[in-house]
Amino acid sequence: MAAPARKKPVKRRRSPIQSRGQATVDVIVEAAAQILARQGPAAATTNAVAARAGVSIGTLYQYFADREALLVEIGRRHVAEMQAVLAGALAGIDGLDLPAAVDRLVAAIVASHRVSPRLHQALHQSLARDHLDTIDAFEVAVEAMVRQALAARPELDLAAPELTATVLVRGLGGLIRTTIRREPERLDDPALAIAMRAMILGTLAGSRRGA
Amino acid sequence: MAAPARKKPVKRRRSPIQSRGQATVDVIVEAAAQILARQGPAAATTNAVAARAGVSIGTLYQYFADREALLVEIGRRHVAEMQAVLAGALAGIDGLDLPAAVDRLVAAIVASHRVSPRLHQALHQSLARDHLDTIDAFEVAVEAMVRQALAARPELDLAAPELTATVLVRGLGGLIRTTIRREPERLDDPALAIAMRAMILGTLAGSRRGA
Amino acid sequence: MAAPARKKPVKRRRSPIQSRGQATVDVIVEAAAQILARQGPAAATTNAVAARAGVSIGTLYQYFADREALLVEIGRRHVAEMQAVLAGALAGIDGLDLPAAVDRLVAAIVASHRVSPRLHQALHQSLARDHLDTIDAFEVAVEAMVRQALAARPELDLAAPELTATVLVRGLGGLIRTTIRREPERLDDPALAIAMRAMILGTLAGSRRGA
Amino acid sequence: MAAPARKKPVKRRRSPIQSRGQATVDVIVEAAAQILARQGPAAATTNAVAARAGVSIGTLYQYFADREALLVEIGRRHVAEMQAVLAGALAGIDGLDLPAAVDRLVAAIVASHRVSPRLHQALHQSLARDHLDTIDAFEVAVEAMVRQALAARPELDLAAPELTATVLVRGLGGLIRTTIRREPERLDDPALAIAMRAMILGTLAGSRRGA
DNA sequence: AATGAATGAGTTTTCATTCAT
DNA sequence: CATGAATGAAAACTCATTCAT
Fold first, then answer.
1. What is the pLDDT of residues A49-69, one digit of tens each?
2. What pLDDT band is residue A210 in, cutting at 50, 70 and 90?
3. Angle between the N-to-C axes of helices B98-113 and B133-151, in degrees from 0 to 180, rounded to the nearest 10
4. Which bases of chain F are under 7 A from a protein CB atom?
5. Which of D156, D166, D197 has the highest number of chain C CBs within 10 A, making it the mutation to test binding with C?
6. Do D182 and C124 touch (CB under 8 A)?
7. What structural domains does chain B harbor?
C-alpha cells in the first residue's frame, strides 16, 4: 500500500553551530525559494541562489551537500508552511456540524494552496523522483487528518471511509492545483467553493454503505 | 477566463511532407519519448535522443528548431494518444443510462491515463511553463466533452453544469495522477473505481439546482 | 604473483570516425603531455590542455570521458614510445656476446628513459593508483624481454633466472629514474654506464646455481 | 653534481616550543599521514585533516603556513622514522663479515621500506617537485652510509667506491619500491632477499678495480 | 590560541546548438 | 538532406585559505 520508497537519503552538511550559520541557511533557502517561484526551476542555479542570498557559492555548499539537498529543504519548509496555514484555518472545526465543517475544510485547503503556488509547482518540476515525497507529504498529512475526521462521524455511515478520504483529498487537491495552474484567478470565485462543497457532500452521500 | 498565455510560439522547422522526412520525425519523437519515459528528463539530451534514434544530431535539428520544440511535439502526440484511447473507451456511451455511462467514463479516463504515465510525468517536469498547455490540452478536451454530456442530460437539473463538469474532470484527473505517482498498483483496485463512481454520482446529485 | 588488478576500465568516448577527429585527438594528447612535462600535474587542467591544443573544452570531452582517461592515453603513448626506442636500440643484440649485449641493454634502457623523463614522472604523480599499471607496463615488458634473453643463455647457469631478471630490471629502472630525478646530468656520465654494466655482470655471476 | 635545487623555502609558522602546541602539531601531522596512507592524496584536504585531527581548520593554519608545509613536515617525519628503523636494524653491522653484513643491510633496507609504504607513495605523488628532496633524503642518507661502509673495506678493492655505493643503493631502493607497489606480498619471499644479496655481492665483485 | 563561518577562484564536466563537409 | 566534429557558455561543486569573534 505504501510507495516504493527507495529514496536515497538527502545529504545535509554542517548543521550550523553558531546562530550566524542558522541565519545564513535561512537566507539561502529563502533566496532559492524566491527564484524558484518567480523564475522557475531553470533559473535556480546554485550560483544564482548564492548571489541573490548575498552569500558566496562556497557558503551554500557548506550547508547543502548538493543542489538537490537544497531543493529538498525548500520543499520541507514549504510543506511545513502549508500545514501551518491549514492547521490555522482548521481551528475549531471539531465543534461544527457537517456542512459548516466542510466549508471550513474547503477554505482551509484552498488557503494552504495559496501559499506560494508557483513555488509548489516549481518544486514539483525540479525535485527528482526520489524526493517528490517531500512535497507529497502535505497531502499525505491531509489525508490522515480527513480519515480521522470521517472516522469520528460514524453517522456518515461510509462503506469505505479510508478510501473515501483518499478520493476526496486527492480529488480536491488535484482540482485546486490544476485550477491554480490554468486559471489562477478563478480560485477566488465563490462559485468554485460552492461547487467543491457540493462535491464533498455529494461524495459523502454517495459513498454510504447502502449506496 | 483563460490563463495569461503569452506562450512563445514553438518553432518547428520544415514540416516534412515527404514520407522520408515524416519517418525520420517519427523515429526521433519515439526515441525521445522512450528515453523520457524510461530514464527521465535529465537523460533526454538532444544528443542522446539522436543517438537512440539512429540519426545524427544535425538531422534532429533539421526538423526541430530546438529541444523545446521536440518536447512540445512529444506532448502533442502523447495527448493525441490519450484522446484516442479515451474516444475508443467512450464509444457508445450516449445510449447508456447514467450509472452505466459514469462507469464507462471512469474506465475511459483511467485507461487514457495508463498511456505512458511515466512519459506524462516526465513531460510535466520538462516542459517550460509556457508550454504546459500542450499536455493540459487533454484535460481541456475532456472537460469540453463532459460539459457537453451534462448539457445533454437536463434531467440532472444541475445548478451550474459547466462548473460541475470542471470540478468533476479536474478532481478525477488529479486523483488519478496522484494515485499513479504514489501508489501505481492501486489503479487496478476495483474498489477505487467504485469510489470514483460514488464520487461522480454523488457530486452530480449534490450539484442540483435545489441543493 | 600478479597485482591486485581491480582497475576500473578507462572510459574512452567517441573513437573518431573521420581523420579530422584523429588529428584532433593527437593535438590534445600532445598538448597535455607538454604541459604535464613542462609545468607538472597541477598545471595540466582540462581547460589549460584544451587551450594549448587550440581546441574547445567541449572537443576534449568528445574524445575523453574525463581527465583520467586523457592521462591514461598519454601514459599509453608514452610507454609505446619508450618501447619503440628500446626496441630500436636493442636491434641486433641477439648475435652479440654477453658483455656486448649487456652494454647494449644498458644503453637501450637508458635511452628509453630519456624519452620525456619529466612526463614520466608527472604521470607517476598524477595517475590514480588504479591506473599506474599503464606506465608500469613498460617495465613489465622489459622484464619479459630480459627473462627471455636470460633463458636463451643457459650457459649463465642461473639458479632462478626469472627472479634474476626481475631484480635486474627493477633495480636498473629504479636506479635510472632516481638518477634522472636527482642528478639528471649524470645520466650522460660514461662512468655510470660502466658501473651499471658491472652491476649486471656481477649480479649474473653472483646468481649462479652454485653461488 | 647536485640537482638544480631552487626549492622555495617551506613556510612553517610558529614553531611551538610549548608542549600544548607540540601536541597539536603531532595530532595534525598524524591525522594527515593517516588519510594520506589510507585514502590517498586526493582525500587529504586541509579540512579533512583538521576534522580527523579534531582541530579546527584555523588551528591547522596556526601551525602550517599552507598545505605544502604540512606535507613537507609529514615527509620529514616519515624519513626520520625510516632512518630510525634502518639504524636499529643495522646495529652491530660493523663487526660482521661481508656476507653477513650484506644480509643485514638488505634486511634493514627492506624493513625501513615497510614503514608506511602507502604513505611513502602518497608523498611521492603529492609533494611538489620542489619538495621531493624531502623524501629523497632517506636514500641520500643511506647512500652516505654505504659509501662510508665501502670505504671502510679497502679489501673490496673497488674501482669507484662512491659510484658503486650509489648504484647499489639506488638500484636496491628502486627494486624494493617497485616491488612494493606492484607485488607487495612478494617482499616477504625469502627468495627475493637471496636474490638481492646475490645482486649486491655480485656487483661488488664486478666493480673491482681490475674488472 | 582556537574557532569555524565565509570566501571565491578555479576545476571538471555537460549539453544545446552550429556549420563545414 | 545528412553528417558529426566542434563549440563555448554555463552549471555544479571543491578546497585552500582568511579573519572576525
1. 999 999 999 999 999 999 999
2. confident
3. 170
4. 1-20
5. D166
6. no
7. 16-64 (1.10.10.60), 73-206 (1.10.357)
